[in-house]
Amino acid sequence: MIRARSVLLALAIGTILGLVPVRSADAIETLRFGVAPAGGGAQAFHLADGSTGQLRVFNKTDQPMVIELSAATASVDPSGSVAIGGVARGVEFEEDAVRLDAQSSRDVTFHVDGRAPATGPAAVVLAQIQGGDQPGSVVERLAVAVYLDGVPGPAVGDHDTHGRWAWALAATLAVVLVGVGITRAARRRWTLVRTT
Amino acid sequence: MKRSTLTLGVLMAVTLIVTCLPGARADDVTVSVNNPGGTRTVFLETIDGQPLTALDLGDGASQPLRVRVVDSSMDRNGFQVNAEMTNLYRSTGASAWDFSSSVPSSDVSLGYSTTPLNTLDVSALVQPVVDVVGSVPGGLCLLLGLGSCGLSFPDLTANLQTLTVPVDLGQLANLPIVPQAGQAGAFASPSFNGIGATDPAKPGVPSPTSLRMLGGGTGVAGPLLTSLDSTLGTTLSGVPLDSVLPIATVTALLQQTLGAAYDLLSGPQLTSILSTLTYTVDSLGAGSILGQSGTYTSYPTLNVSLPENLDPGTYEGTLVVTAVQL
User: Fold this and answer.
1) What pLDDT was estimated at residue A7?
2) Considering only CB atoms, which chain B residues are within 8 Å of A121?
3) Which of A173, B88, B186, B204 has the fewest CB within 10 Å, making it most exposed?
4) Which residues of B touch A87 (CB under 8 A)?
5) In this complex, do B15 and A35 lie within 8 Å of one another by their Cβ atoms?
6) Rounded CA separation B245/B226 (Å)
7) Closest to B177 measured CA to CA, from B117, B260, B114, B255
8) Could you say which of B75, B194, B325 has the minimum Cβ distance to residue A133?
9) pLDDT digits (tens, 9 = 90+) for B15-73
């Protein structure tokens, strides 16, 4: 009976996995690989500050490949074009690279820490095939825009996570110092009371 | 234990049915999904359509290329294909470069011909809404003792329709995805991807110049909807009701309207009522466009202006192309 259940369970899992196609709905892709927000139903990420997103990356080829993951800042220029900038420090992937078997896909989690810009996406999450570039070559990257909900503020790339910790540390120190000051004052008063 | 096994078995059966269901028969219930969930494929090609893996400028100063985006039942969301460029470094052997001798990326630029864009095979997937009216024929109406013989079923969701959208390059705003031409200009600030990744002068936080080679936006729905309304009217002209929406929807509404009298109807009587029904198509709203297909092409040219007093040799760089889903 246990064996039968195991077989049934394996078959059920296999069947369910079989429903997840290598090519994802709403994906942007090249001939070799593709990306899309995991779960389908959306083409870009709309996230809240401090939340996580899942990027589905998939290998369309018959060979294994390693996909490198990163994030870059994004801004809308006066012509309405989205310019991709430098590294978006407020977006962190749990893995910088994932290995994909032939014809397979994986969902990779990233964390977002930042505020929404006045317009357009705050950042893009990027994927490119590791070692896909050769001298004099072309590197193909695929990206999905990350829009942040909430009140506009410093962009993801400008957001200083360390600064936030520094403020927290300074505030804690201030509380400690005030506490020490109060304690000393109380001691002095107690001493005064005691000596008089 | 038996129950859990049974549950797994049922789960398998259901999932297998979903996977293996054959084409729906006419009397099957039509299940439509609002998100068609398509794909968007980006092709970077030589001007004659071969995959672009390298750009050899030879002794020349420019090289044309082709950027093609093919949407298949994709949502109406924008995209952009951007380019960045590294400096061109003097090659000193296989995968070896003299980083102190280079052509700066600012001497590399993108340009476009007089016809920078092309758009082909555009269609829109729409969800029409129809109003159905008809009547119970006089004698039958009296026989059934109905208070009103008229029938009216407004705002019924009809079957999905794929409409061909005519392409007029002078009226791009009429398209579900409005193609945007590329940006001409120099790569003022270099990328440090590809070959540039090992440049000792790579800054901690590179900020490369990013130029759009092709874009697609959603534009304003108004002109598109007017065009689609016209096409939808032509497409559905003369199409019988049972081909526009599931007949089961109509019979269910008829049953609801006639109440107990519905059960007294013979087959021919029901047919006589159904034969009176006609429909009109409502104007489409922006939410009626569920997806689009099309091919959007741009023809940029990569130009290099070699600086004077450049050391002789072969210079290599990396063109970084990023396709962004917006």
Assistant:
1) 38
2) 326
3) B204
4) 205-206
5) no
6) 22
7) B117
8) B194
9) 222 222 233 333 333 333 334 468 899 999 998 888 888 878 877 688 999 999 999 98
Is B134 part of the contact surface with chain A (CB cutoff 8 Å)? no
Report chain A residues whose CB lies below 8 A from the CB of B195: 133, 135
What local confidence, expressed as pLDDT, does residue A169 receive? 42
- Inter-chain touch B316–A136, beta carbons under 8 Å: yes
Here the tokens at position A120 are 């357009």
Q: Residue B279's pLDDT is what?
A: 96
pLDDT of the residue at A156: 60
Q: Which residues in chain B touch residue A80, judged by CB atoms under 8 angstroms apart?
A: 180, 217
Task: Show the 3-state SS of A23-86.
Answer: CCCCEEECCCEEEEECCCCCCCEEECCCCEEEEEEEECCCCCEEEEEEEEEEEECCCCCEEEEE
pLDDT at B213 over 90: yes
C-alpha to C-alpha distances, A45 to A71, A92, A93, A174, B118, nearest whole angstrom: 13, 14, 14, 39, 29
ipTM of the complex: 0.78
Give me the mean pLDDT over the B60-89 stretch. Answer: 92
Q: Distance (Å) from the C-alpha of residue B237 to the closest C-alpha of chain A?
A: 32
Within 10 angstroms of residue A89's Cβ, the number of other Cβ atoms is: 19
